[in-house]
Each structure stands twice: as structure tokens, then as C-alpha cells.
Here is the input.
Amino acid sequence: MSHGICQPVGTSVLGQRLDDVADIARINREVRANSLDLLQTSHTLAGIDMALWDLLGRRRGEPVWRLLGHDQSTRKTPYASQLFGDEPQETRAKGKAQREAGFRAVKFGWGPYGQGDASTDAAHIAAAREGLGEDGILLVDAGTVWVDDVAAAAARLDALIEHRATWLEEPFISAALGAYKALAERAAPLRLAGGEGAHNFHMAQQMIDYAGLGYVQIDAGRMGISDSKRVADYAAQRDVRFVNHTFNSHIALSASLQAFAGHEQDDICEYPVEAKPLSREITQSLIERDSDGLVCAPDAPGLGMEIDTDALARYLVQVKITVDDARLYATPDVP
Ligand SMILES: [Mg+2]
Here is the structure.
């Protein structure tokens, strides 16, 4: 340790008391103050923050969304989140397949989009609309491919508007606020979405205030549940829609749904459909769609998800970190 504000996150967490919601806020403040100069702090604290909310909810017998002040868990339209096909016909087939699987909303992202010329991208957007059908909700994720190049992104707007995409996500890296704003001014009626790269409330606040976003997408795995809730409330004040960003497990999905569970206007949510086996096996159950094809944060204590430790054991890798003879870390026993 070189100085007082780069302490390991654990030093501010282990041994703390957790009796109340206020304790979670206090632990968050202590971690940030003591580990201010560590770039990893937000992500590490995000996991701890989720665990604190889950623990307190289980002890109280209340779902996290209720501890956060929501009085209901409203149902959201889940969008199937998947990669573009390599060729337009594959994109069309992927859209059709998700429609047949019961998803009305589908997001296509990354892959070839933005890597070639604008006409190839337009062919993918047309194919996506065709596969999805006229009444489907089409969402497009450029995966920061244009970094901060407004002209390159603007060349894609006509096709997105013609095929009625609801949003264009992450045309640029999160910090390129000026580029976002310039594109947003040219994009209507298309809205811009972004925010998955925000590591804390203040980063998301900057995007809401200065990037011209229509949708702010927050990953509880990056900023935790406490900050996600602050963003959801701030977005509501600024007439920006809040959406979760979740591309892996259903425990992450539950954690990401808590912040906006009670917000009826935030009625769409990301739903992972191309998850790796570990992401599906980590929990004993999944957040399934109801008979209307909608999902909501579980009405069960904490995050409402049970870890499947037997399934997890198959993926366990034994790690030991020692410096001289002092053991800094060893993989804990999994019960
Ligand atoms: Mg994205």
C-alpha cells in the first residue's frame, strides 16, 4: 500500500455490522473513501453491495426492491439480447427464431455491425426487421464501434429510422459525451441508449445530463444496486428511461431488475439468451417469462435466487496467492 486511500476493498467490509439499509450506505461510503485510488473498487464493491442487499432482504424476509422503497415489482417486456449474424440472412434467421421463441423485442449487437460500410449495415437492419416482423421491437447495439466518430454513426441513421429501430445503443464509448450529444440532435425519432460503461452514479448522471440519451442502461454488476437505484430515480426525474444491462446470469438479472422494479414507465428489460453454461447453471432456477411473455424481479426474500453450489463446483479453480510466506488469498471451501 502506497497511501491511505488505496486500501484493499475487504479491509472496509469484513467485520462490519449489517442491521439496516443505512449500514449498506455506510459500508459503500467507507469502501469508496478507503479505496478511492483503485480502479477496481467500483466493480468489487458492486458485488459486495449486491450481497449486502441480498443478506438484509433474506434476514427481513423481504425482496430487495421493497427494501429500496418500491411498493411493487412491475412486469417488463424482456428483449432477447443477441449478436448480429455474420451475414444479413443469418441476422434475419436469428430475429425470426427469437420471435418464434416468444420474444416481441429483440436486440442485435456487435458482430459485423459498423465494421464494414453503411450499406452492409443497412442490409443487416432490414434483415433484422424482416425476421422480427412489423410489430416487433427492434433494438440495435453498435458496441462503441465508432468510438467518437459522429459522421460514421450518422451514416447509419437513415436505415435505423426507416426500419423503425427503437434505439441505437453505444455508438460511442461512454465518456464521449459530446459525440453522443451531437448524434442525438440528428437522430430523432431514433433514440440513443448507453450507460453500461458507467461505473458509478456520477458517471451515469453525466450521461443523462450531457449525452442526449433516451435510455440509460445500467449494469448492477458494475455499480451495485445502491447506485443503480440512484440512477433509476434520477433518470425518472430527467425523463430518461432506465433499462438494465445484463448479458450473463439470472442472479445478475435479478440484481439489475431491483433498482427500477417499481417504475412502470421503465417497461423494457434486457434478458440474456446467449448465456454461457456457467451463467445458466450458477442458480437453481431462472427468471422465466410468464404466460404473457413478461418478466419481473422475484417476489421473494433478497434477490430471490438460490446458488447451485453443486453445479458451481464443476467450474471451481483452486487459486492461491502468496507473497513471501503470507497468504493473501486462497479459494474458499464451497459448502
Ligand atoms: Mg450494449
In short: Residues 41-60 form the longest helix (20 residues). The chain has a mean pLDDT of 95. The chain has 13 helices and ten strands. The longest strand covers residues 77-83.
